[in-house]
């Protein structure tokens, strides 16, 4: 049997976080960071940490923020040969401050950072040929060259008989960037495993109920839908089965990265042929572990850590 290898493409960033809650950055605040970040980077780090072959295509600057990411991804087992280190570029960043109400204010530098343009050529093109599964983060469709790179790799991996997973990772209100909806729809057309969270289920299938939205997606060619429900857990749907599992009971410290670690774990177990219930249980455990640690990528778990949480809360 061919060894599976998971690929993703998109933003690699550092996150720098205000240590005190409040409104934004219009006055000096204490900061902590840099933490390795970027939704596709968090996703692929979690895949690598589970021992599944994994790779990411992106671009960073030849600066400390870039090397923080390269070092972490490498040490967690991710193939970084597709990350172009641009000597003239600056690594992307996100400054984040939590408000008292739990909301967040951001200052992003992504579109004009090194990963503002990503191309599939040289080592990245060779890497695509070695991968059997493509994971698309909707939030990575932020610039024309990145959209083109994602669509190219997705189609290539599909054409070779591979599979595709897709996490829209957007809230309905940020769908306005030009060409975004079109690109999302093309990706959905290639998707085997769709991993929306909450209202994202209705992005492509305006329906009156969850059941109807899922039925429309399955009719459209998606093989399975995995719906994330935050602290309440998650549900799995395919043509013949429906499985729902509650979330694990943990103390939430920082919700960032939960969906990415959840998705990475579900995809890893799904590719290994696990039944939906097992994949969902491990994915819920990974999402729960993720929220217990501050820093976006800090909450990625090993298989042993997931086994320990599952054993601890088995009823
Ligand atoms: P993100 O904000 O990272 O994009 P998301 O909206 O994609 O997240 P969520 O539904 O918030 O996804 O979280 C993904 C999974 O993580 C959930 O399905 C659940 O398994 C787990 N999870 C999230 N929050 C909690 C929590 N407070 N307690 C336990 N598990 C949680
Ligand atoms: Mg998400």
From TrEMBL:
Question: What GO annotations for molecular function exist for this entry?
Answer: ATP binding; kinase activity
The record's listing under InterPro entries reads: PfkB_Carbo_kinase, PfkB_dom, Ribokinase-like
Q: Does the record's keyword annotation contain Nucleotide-binding?
A: yes
Name the SUPFAM superfamilies on file.
Ribokinase-like
Protein origin, superkingdom: Bacteria
In this chain the Carbohydrate kinase PfkB domain maps to 5-301
**UniProt entry keywords in alphabetical sequence:** ATP-binding, Kinase, Nucleotide-binding, Transferase
Q: Which CDD domains match?
A: KdgK
Family the UniProt entry places it in: Belongs to the carbohydrate kinase PfkB family.
Family annotation (PANTHER family): HEXOKINASE FAMILY MEMBER, PSEUDOURIDINE KINASE-RELATED
Q: Write down what this protein is called.
A: Sugar kinase
Q: Tell me which species this is from.
A: Pleomorphomonas diazotrophica
């Amino acid at each position: 049997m061919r060894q599976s290898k998971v690929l993703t493409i998109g933003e690699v960033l550092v996150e720098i976080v205000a240590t005190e809650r409040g409104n934004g950055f219009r006055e000096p605040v204490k900061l902590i960071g840099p933490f390795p970040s970027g939704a596709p980077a968090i996703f692929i780090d979690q895949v690598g940490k589970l021992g599944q072959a994994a790779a990411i295509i992106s671009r960073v600057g030849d600066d400390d923020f870039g090397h923080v990411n390269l070092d972490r991804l490498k040490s967690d087992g991710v193939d970084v040969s597709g990350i172009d280190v641009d000597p003239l570029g600056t690594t992307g960043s996100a400054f984040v401050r939590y408000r008292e109400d739990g909301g967040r204010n951001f200052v992003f530098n992504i579109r004009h950072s090194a990963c503002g343009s990503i191309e599939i050529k040289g080592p990245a093109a060779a890497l695509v040929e070695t991968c059997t599964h493509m994971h698309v983060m909707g939030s990575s469709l932020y610039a024309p060259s990145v959209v083109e790179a994602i669509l190219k790799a997705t189609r290539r991996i599909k054409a070779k008989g591979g599979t595709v997973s897709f996490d829209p990772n957007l809230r309905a209100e940020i769908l306005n960037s030009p060409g975004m909806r079109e690109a999302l729809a093309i990706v959905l057309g290639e998707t085997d495993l769709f991993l929306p969270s909450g209202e994202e289920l209705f992005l492509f299938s305006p329906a009156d109920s969850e059941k109807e939205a899922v039925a429309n997606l399955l009719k459209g060619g998606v093989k399975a839908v995995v719906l994330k429900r935050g602290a309440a857990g998650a549900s799995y749907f395919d043509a013949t089965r429906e499985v729902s599992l509650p979330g694990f009971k943990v103390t939430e410290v920082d919700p960032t990265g939960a969906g990415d670690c959840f998705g990475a774990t579900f995809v890893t177990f799904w590719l290994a042929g696990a039944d939906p219930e097992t994949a969902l249980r491990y994915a819920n455990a990974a999402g729960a572990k993720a929220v217990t640690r501050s820093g976006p990528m800090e909450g990625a778990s090993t298989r042993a850590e997931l086994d320990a949480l599952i054993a601890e809360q088995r009823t």
